[in-house]
Amino acid sequence: YRGLRTKATRLSEFNQTEIRAMLGSYTKVLFVRDPFHRLIAAFLQGMGISPSFSTFVQEVLDSGTHSSSVAWKPLVSLCRPCHIQYDYVVMFGFLRQELGHLLRRVGLPVGNLLPELTDSQVQWTYRWLSEQMFSELSAQQKKQLAHFYRWDLAAFPFPSSFLSD
């Protein structure tokens, strides 16, 4: 937003008039990913020092939304989709087709800007990983995770999420 030259980086540091002006001047894009896949990625990247996925999930559940890690916080607490009207919501797993559409809509050339994405392989891999990791969890942990991410599951279409079941 050209009207404000400041070092503030958080939207909450501006007043409501400035926020409306800024948000009105940008194309707002939200990238979303199945919360269970986000947990798997955080675990595999070593974001927790847990020996097992089940232990890691329990640590996440115990820390709740008070944890400082954005890797597993519910998306609705991070991106405020009820307060910000996003122009585009891009789902992980459909990046190639959605990014091409987005680039065309904002007037950018699609050709060389899109990386080579193999969405179908990513979806298959995460399906397999999800099955393996989900089987490690107790029924109580599964129920708690579904409750923890209930607003994400309600706000975004994750029809094949293990947490939706």
From TrEMBL:
It is a single-pass type II membrane protein. Keywords: Carbohydrate metabolism, Glycoprotein, Golgi apparatus, Membrane, Signal-anchor, Transferase, Transmembrane, Transmembrane helix. Its main location: Golgi. It is found in: Golgi apparatus membrane. Transmembrane segments: none annotated. One of its GO terms (molecular function) is sulfotransferase activity. Belongs to the sulfotransferase 2 family. This is Carbohydrate sulfotransferase.
